[in-house]
Amino acid sequence: MSAGADRAPGSSPVLDSRPAGVLLQAGGMLQLAGQALWRGLRPPYDYGPELVAQLRFALRISLFPLVLTSFALSFGPAGIQASNFLGLFGALDRLGGVYVIVVIREFAPLVTAIVVAGVAGTAICADLGARAVREELDALEVLGVDVVRALVVPRVFAIAIVCVLFDVFALLAGVLGAILVVLQNHAPLGPFFSTFFNSATTLELAASFVKCAIYGAMIATVCCYKGMNATGGAAGVGRAVNQSVVIAFLATGAINYVFTQLLLATNPVLSEVR
């Protein structure tokens, strides 16, 4: 994949909002995702060092914002609102069942995707975009280096792994926010944990991990594609970064809707009151 072939100077695919341009970009992202998966699963697996470097980088810059955001959303919009409503009926013990849906199904994966896209995704897009505008990617291709295997594969795999790992931290931070809500209402923690664990299922936890892995692969693919196709100097890289985040957020919402509908349709037990 050439970073700047067949495009006029100063042009950029991120600026093409016509239907044909949107479909072309979507097809390019799907093609890049397929190439990364195919080449990443075939030997030789020589991208190990870059994979580890990307894992460490994403963990270092994204962990604290993720935990802080998960705790804040769990304690504030979710916990305080739900506790005020349930307190009207004297059913604060049902808060555990609410948090199964709020944290495990929705908030933890969504917060993970938003934070990773906004922090690690932008860094990936800016890095590859800077290389693209300096024609480093074209130079690597001339030297016979497989750019997809060398640069895209480790980033896609690393972000997918990081998202699954971050989902655990988001769940823990969300439960910590719930505990603080219960204590703030001077209620015992026993009934909360009882309803929480009675309502939670291993299927919901597994679905949360799968959803986060899909989010991670999508975010890395979008950011790599936008970065590798950035043109127009530093301004073009900035536009690519901004629009990669917007696309990642929109795709996260679409994936969440489709995934949740399929999950509930194929597992009706998750819609039952427990």
UniProtKB/TrEMBL annotation:
<feature type="transmembrane region" description="Helical">
    <location>
        <begin position="245"/>
        <end position="264"/>
    </location>
</feature>
<keyword id="KW-0812">Transmembrane</keyword>
<feature type="transmembrane region" description="Helical">
    <location>
        <begin position="58"/>
        <end position="78"/>
    </location>
</feature>
<keyword id="KW-1133">Transmembrane helix</keyword>
<dbReference type="InterPro" id="IPR030802">
    <property type="entry name" value="Permease_MalE"/>
</dbReference>
<protein>
    <submittedName>
        <fullName>ABC transporter permease</fullName>
    </submittedName>
</protein>
<feature type="transmembrane region" description="Helical">
    <location>
        <begin position="156"/>
        <end position="183"/>
    </location>
</feature>
<dbReference type="Pfam" id="PF02405">
    <property type="entry name" value="MlaE"/>
</dbReference>
<keyword id="KW-0472">Membrane</keyword>
<feature type="transmembrane region" description="Helical">
    <location>
        <begin position="203"/>
        <end position="225"/>
    </location>
</feature>
